[in-house]
Amino acid sequence: MAEPIVIVGAGQAGAKAAETLRRSGYAGDLVLIGDEPHEPYQRPPLSKKFLSGAIDAAQLWLYGPTFADELGLDFIKNDRVTSIDRAAKRIASKSGRSLPYSQLLLATGTRPRVLPLPGADLKGVHVLRSIADVEAMQAGLKSPRRIAIIGGGYIGLETAAMLRQMGHEATVIEAQQRLLQRVAGPEISEFFRALHTRNGVGIHLSAAVKAITGADHVDGVETSAGCIPADMVLVAAGSIANDELARAAGLESADGIVVDGQCRAAEDIYAAGDCTRFFSQRYGRSIRLESVQNATDQARAAAAAMLGATEIYDPVPWFWSDQYDIKLQIAGLNQGYDRIETTGDPGSGSFSLAYFQGDRLLCVDAVNSPRAHMTARRQLAGVTPRA
Known about the structure:
The protein has helices at residues 12-23, 49-52, 67-71, 131-139, 154-165, 186-198, 244-248, 292-306, 370-381; strands spanning 5-8, 30-33, 74-76, 81-85, 90-93, 98-100, 103-106, 110-112, 125-126, 146-150, 169-173, 202-204, 209-214, 218-223, 226-229, 232-235, 239-241, 257-258, 264-266, 269-271, 276-280, 285-287, 318-323, 326-332, 339-345, 350-357, 360-367. It folds into three domains: 5-111 and 240-306, FAD/NAD(P)-binding domain (3-Layer(bba) Sandwich); 114-237, FAD/NAD(P)-binding domain, CATH 3.50.50.60; 325-381, FAD/NAD-linked reductase, C-terminal dimerisation domain (Enolase-like, domain 1, 2-Layer Sandwich), CATH 3.30.390.30. It is an alpha/beta fold. It is globular.
């Protein structure tokens, strides 16, 4: 009897891979292991409706409570895989389990980047990645608070928007010269700076954080621009790929588990989702994508490859962010652009920016313009990948 397929990580990618394997006809034993005490759930609402209390944990679930029975899989919650024995084809877990596998899928995701700052361990300092993280924040938000947010990326800005709507003060501290600098162009950065300023969010750019201050509980953030009072601090300074398990097993990792075009990291070992780095022929370089789109699409591709498919995984990346009544949708990656074309009026709150390298379209940022976003995805998908 064949050993089971084991999936490590019960987030968006791991759950989608399990579903895909079953829907594609895999009838053997299947094990899904997650390190949280929850069903597989969506993470995007954590910084929005779940933080505000508009939805509860059960409304985050990707599937119903009987999904494991329906898919005929062994779902192990609240346990963490600690090692992979590639020679014996077994994994070991923190709880003492030792499980064999015929094929292994690593969908271990990411974790928040921890800043080595004085005061980082004070009470009232939070990160936002899981249900438990949000519940810890909610406990300190029962009355109006001053929240300092370290990081002006998606999570930082989405949380700032929601906190303002909940009646709290919010200040965003960004070390770079502009918001969203890693993912969007200057025009988009300025649009969101103005949007948040109009909604009462304090914005500090080019501000290096020196320390988080306080005796027992946080009372402020010391920056190169001065001290910012705060009753709570959210560190939203990016994420780190959870690739330690793979590296310890001798798999190639470079800020992510390196996989080939079929999502394969080694013989009988695959990886998918935020933890994974792959070569994009479309963009001519190695990339690691953090998005729901990539987690689900790469999980499908990995599951198909485990069942013998040979197609190359090379998607058009796309992302979105909801802040106040604004939806930002991005199709493609803008690195390497040399000109921008604007459609619509940014002052109207509905417009798009197309990024080109010469005559080649690289990316489109669409603000409250879903048609522009979908058109861009179709155009980018039609581009012949580089050799």
